[in-house]
Structures are given as C-alpha cells and as structure tokens.
C-alpha cells in the first residue's frame, strides 16, 4: 500500500467513526470488558494538551457501581439545587438555540412525547440522571488552577474517548448534566477540592431497538462555521 493510499484509508476510517457515533440514550445490560475500556482510555491519552499538561482525570465505574450511582444520583437530582463548578451557558441564542431545540424535538418525537407536554418531557430529561441505563460511566475532572484551558484540553480528551469507544463498537453519550450536581459527584467519587467536576460519559453497548436511539442529529454546513482567509 502506498503512502497516499494509507492516508486515504486512515482519513476514511476516521470520518466513518465521526459519522457513525451518536449520543446513545438506551443501552443493553451486558457490560463492556474491562480490557476494551482500558484500550479506549489508552488511545484517548494520546490527545494533545497545552504544554503536554494532560490535566484530565477519569473515574470509571463498573456495572454494579454504575447502577448504585445512577439510583443515588436520580434520587438526589429530584430535590437538590443546581450547583456546578463551572458556570453553565447563560443562554442559547440564534443558530445555537435552533440546533438545541431541533435536537430536543427529535428526541421527544422519537420517544413519543407530544409537543407541549411538559410533564412527559421533564420525565424524559430525568433519564439523564439514571445515566440512560448505561452499564458504565466515567467522570472527568480538571485542576481548578488551569481554568478554561484545562477544561478545553479535557474536552479534547472526551472527544478522543468517545471515538476510541466507537471504534470498538461501544456507544456513549457525553453528559454535562451530571456537572449540575457537582457537590454530589465530588462526594461520590472523592474528587479532590482543587479539581473541577467537568462532565461525565455514560457508555455501553447500544440498544438499537430503543426509541430514544431512533434519530440522528444533523451538522451545520461548512460555510456556516468556517471563515476562509485564502490567497
């Protein structure tokens, strides 16, 4: 195989991973072998970070621990106030709000929630705190002193982990929702006080027959997000 052919094959495989991955909201019960998870984490460790600081820490749960966490988090989230280490977005406006709304409407249509049914939509939203029934979960934290740029590096790590899992046939969903209850997550995982709770990732083998997995979001056209400055 020539270098050009190898590059084309690699590019095609990478693009295929990006297009095949989706935010999975229903999982089969069977756990992912620990060796598979370790291999995905090893791949994700190779993402670049500022000054090679590698600020992320990942706390990973097996199936029984994930079930205990999901039950406790679901109960806690029903009464506790929102409390995140990093501020959530102040608002979504324009195209960002449009994309967010479209995603929500697609999900509600897939699971049979009628437009305007706030009780049913709230019930679906609460599935976040059951971790969507995933058999595994990973909590991502970053040093407080590294601020925004530590969080940015951790975002790269999360993306790499999602793709490394996808490459091994494992579905996933990144979750900012769990960071809305950072004190709970900090206590549960014994996170050091000098670290911020950033997000989580629920993962496992997808239940492709579940209605919640029956839609795919689209992506903005390149000319909406890229400004070319080209001679």
Please mark out the parts with pLDDT under 50 across 5 or more consecutive residues, or reply none.
none
SSE sequence, one letter per element: HHEHHHEHEHEH
User: In what range is the share of β-strand residues?
Assistant: 5-15%
| Average pLDDT | 96
CATH hierarchy class name of the domain at 23-89 and 129-209:
Alpha Beta
Question: What key attributes describe this structure?
Answer:
alpha+beta; NADH Oxidase; 231 residues; 4-stranded antiparallel β-sheet; globular
In short:
The chain is 45% helix and 12% strand. The protein contains 8 helices and 4 strands.
Polypeptide structure, described:
By secondary structure, the chain is α+β, with helices and mostly antiparallel strands. It has a four-stranded antiparallel β-sheet with strand order 1-2-4-3, sandwiched between helices. Helix 2 packs across helix 6. It has a domain at 23-89 and 129-209: NADH Oxidase (3-Layer(aba) Sandwich). The chain has helices spanning 3-20, 34-44, 63-77, 94-111, 118-125, 147-167, 182-189, 222-225; strands at residues 57-61, 136-143, 171-175, 195-204.
SSE inventory with pairings:
Blueprint lengths: L2 H18 L13 H11 L12 E5 L1 H15 L16 H18 L6 H8 L10 E8 L3 H21 L3 E5 L6 H8 L5 E10 L17 H4 L6
Antiparallel strand pairs: 1-2, 2-4, 3-4
Helix pairs in contact: 2-6
